[in-house]
Specification:
mainly beta, four-stranded antiparallel sheet, three-stranded antiparallel sheet
């Protein structure tokens, strides 16, 4: 059996040591006669990779884990609610007005701050409607039988870099889970959604009606 030279033994020992430590290395040797004009060349390589995850961020409301709430309250013009029996000289049916309150205060009632960012091309934004606890559900579409419909709550997009809202009807019938808008990768969206009510109060039964709008950004 041929014995390994000291050089080969050292090389084998080095390789075993690298394997034992989990290191990855490449080693070559270049040898030329000392009197040769040809260069002695040795090369070694290292692989460099950059691993980036898919990222998508979506904000509706303040930058916290609090769901914003917007209330549209209808009442008889000039009367506070609730109101006991009082003299009334107004029209029949009465003239009804609505007030809007929200998390940004009276001056910005109905407005929520929205934002999004993704590094993934083809990211889509959708919205869907669900029941709000303690409230009667809306009808899909227009108001029917005294119950408000989703078409009675409108939305508008604003801001310097507006976040596109799914759909084209500009009301909550657009939030059917299917309508979508594509978000441009690596674009910081910063804007607002403004919600308003075009419901006619004299068409509605008394009660509390509500729904939850869930926006979903999906990076494929």
């Amino acid at each position: 059996m041929k014995r390994l030279s000291n050089y080969r033994l050292a090389a084998v020992a080095c390789a075993l040591a690298l394997a034992a430590t989990g290191a990855v290395a490449e080693q070559t040797v270049g040898v030329q006669d000392g009197a040769s004009t040809t260069d002695a060349v040795a090369t070694a390589r290292v692989n460099v990779r950059v691993l980036v995850p898919k990222i998508v961020i979506l904000r509706v409301g303040d930058a916290a884990n609090t769901v914003p709430q917007i209330d549209f309250t209808y009442g008889i013009t000039g009367f506070a609610a609730p109101q006991a029996s009082a003299s009334y000289t107004g029209a029949i049916p009465p003239v009804l007005a609505s007030t809007t309150t929200g998390t940004l205060g009276a001056s910005n009632a109905g407005v929520v701050v929205v934002g999004a960012w993704t590094n993934m091309a083809g990211t889509t934004l959708t919205c869907a409607l669900g029941a709000l606890g303690g409230s009667s559900a809306f009808f899909a579409g227009p108001t029917t039988g005294g119950v408000p419909g989703t078409a009675g709550i409108t939305w508008a997009v604003g801001g310097a870099t507006p976040l596109p809202h799914p759909g084209t009807n500009n009301n909550l019938t657009d939030c059917n889970g299917t309508n979508s808008n594509t978000l441009t990768a690596r674009t910081a969206y910063n804007g607002t959604y403004t919600y308003a009510s075009n419901l006619v109060a004299t068409d509605l039964n008394p009660g509390t009606y509500g729904l939850t709008v869930t926006y979903t950004a999906t990076a494929p």
